[in-house]
Amino acid sequence: MHIEDWKSQIKRGTLELCILKMIARKPCYGYEIISRLEHWPILAAKESTVYPLLRRLLKEGCLSSSWQETTEGLPPRKYYSITGQGKEYLEAMEGEWEHLLEAMAGIGQDGDMA
């Protein structure tokens, strides 16, 4: 397995968590999410990855959406907001993430492995 394959798998598994964390802070539109993810190359994602994920989270009730007019004369933007169900899901994901980090930190330490 090549490192790029591994990175792709890690990214695929964490992108949903990252997007929900972003939207939980403030409602975002799709291109804004893509642009913000580009600040961290390991998380950078294309439209063909982000928009289907947003649609799925919307369908599953984790997100809601609304169209908002822009002040710059641009077409309206579809903003995504986290729902109560989405907040619960995000909290569960963050808990699992913390458990994963704790387990990873403990691996290889003396006395922790039987």
Which stretches are low in confidence, meaning pLDDT under 50 for 5 or more residues running? none
| Structural class estimated from helices and strands | alpha+beta
- Helix-residue proportion: 55-70%
Beta-strand portion reads: 5-15%
What is the terminal-to-terminal distance? 28 Å
- How are the strands of the largest sheet arranged? 1-3-2
How large is the radius of gyration?
Answer: 17 Å
Globally, the shape reads globular
Mean pLDDT: 91
DSSP helical segment count: 4
Total count of strands: 3
Q: What is the H/E string?
A: HEHHEEH
Largest sheet: 3 strands, antiparallel
Describe this structure in words.
By secondary structure, the chain is α+β, with helices and mostly antiparallel strands. It is built from four helices and three strands, in the order H-E-H-H-E-E-H. The protein has helices spanning 3-25, 30-37, 47-59, 84-106; strands at 28-29, 63-68, 77-82. A three-stranded antiparallel β-sheet has the order 1-3-2. Helix 1 (3-25) packs across helix 4 (84-106) and helix 2 (30-37) packs across helix 3. The two termini are 28 Å apart. The mean pLDDT is 91.
Q: How is the topology of this model organized?
A:
Blueprint: H1 3-25, E1 28-29, H2 30-37, H3 47-59, E2 63-68, E3 77-82, H4 84-106
Antiparallel strand pairs: 1-3, 2-3
Helix pairs in contact: 1-4, 2-3
